[in-house]
Write a structure and sequence with these properties.
Blueprint: H1 3-14, E1 18-22, E2 29-33, H2 34-45, H3 59-75, H4 81-87, E3 96-101, E4 112-117, E5 120-121, E6 126-127, H5 132-198, E7 208-210, E8 213-215, H6 224-233, H7 244-252, E9 264-269, E10 272-275
């Protein structure tokens, strides 16, 4: 730009009879007669359907109410004193209104689109709207809350998946436990059957069996008492004959020339014979002692 161009623009800006604004649409720059612009502004502001003139500026009242609310937030531990200092606007800007010409509707006498400005320039600083910092703070808090909520939602989904997997694992383990219990019962039944089959067949070395008992035929005891003592040393006792089969079994295993002590005695009352288990001795019809 030449010096003449710059000088012309400077004079144009300083001309109080003109208004230079952006068009409402299209990005064009509009130079309007001040009176036309002022008439359009009064026309709109005079429409009681949309605008009412206030007797006083409500900004100081609003400012006091907001400060009381913020002080209460500090007292209740919601915000810190440092945050209070940041949110407090000590010299709030008064909002102003201006109108962007709608030249796409009327080129010569364009209606205006009302715009309310939140900021105004002072000589040394840009004064902020009363709620600007609070709005930015709340927007930040909401964004953080939304992020936490999203994280919690993801965590919830993950935990639900983990819970479902745990439930499946528990069900699987429960089924396995049930199967093992069946197998254990079967094994116990097999052991019981095997024990029944092996009953009387698992006597110690040197003993002989007649189900369900084991018998040891000793030849070294000199008297009945020594024989009983030796039996007890072997965790046993002298035999108590309870039937013909058992009596025949013992008789058949008696070695020639040897005698064996049995569990029959009259040590308590002479000629009153008792077995070592305390039962009385009596003859039976099958010839058993």
């Amino acid at each position: 730009m030449t010096e003449n161009d710059i000088s012309s623009l400077d004079e144009l800006v300083k001309n109080k009879e003109l208004v230079i604004l952006h068009a409402d649409k299209g990005g064009a720059v509009v130079v309007m007669d001040w009176n036309c612009y002022d008439n359009e502004a009064h026309r709109q502001l005079g429409d009681a359907r949309y605008y009412n003139k206030m007797p006083l500026d409500p900004t100081p009242v609003f400012s006091a109410q907001i400060r009381d609310f913020l002080d209460s937030a500090v007292d209740n531990g919601i915000i810190t004193s440092q945050t209070l200092k940041h949110l407090t606007i000590t010299d709030p800007a008064r909002q102003s209104i201006y109108f962007l010409p709608k030249i796409h509707k009327d080129l010569l006498h364009p209606p205006g689109r009302p715009i309310v400005s939140d900021l105004q320039k002072s000589k040394q600083l840009e004064q902020a709207n009363l709620l600007l910092n609070s709005s930015v703070y709340l927007e930040t808090q909401f964004a953080q809350a939304e992020m936490k909520a999203a994280n919690l939602s993801r965590d919830r989904t993950y935990l639900q998946m983990q819970l479902k997997q745990a439930e499946m694992t528990i069900n699987d383990l429960t089924q396995k436990q049930s199967d093992l219990q069946v197998q254990l019962q079967t094994a116990q039944q097999d052991i019981t059957q095997l024990n029944s089959k092996l009953q009387g067949k698992c006597c110690p070395v040197g003993w002989e069996s007649l189900s369900p008992n084991c018998y040891y035929f000793a030849t070294s005891s000199e008297n009945w008492f020594n024989a009983q003592t030796r039996c007890k040393d072997l965790s046993s006792d002298l035999v108590v004959i309870k039937g013909a089969e058992e009596q025949e079994f013992i008789k058949n295993r008696k070695k020639r020339g040897w005698a064996y002590w049995i569990g029959l005695t009259d040590t308590e009352v002479e000629n009153t014979w008792k077995w070592v288990d305390g039962s009385l001795c009596s003859s039976s019809s099958d010839g058993t002692v």
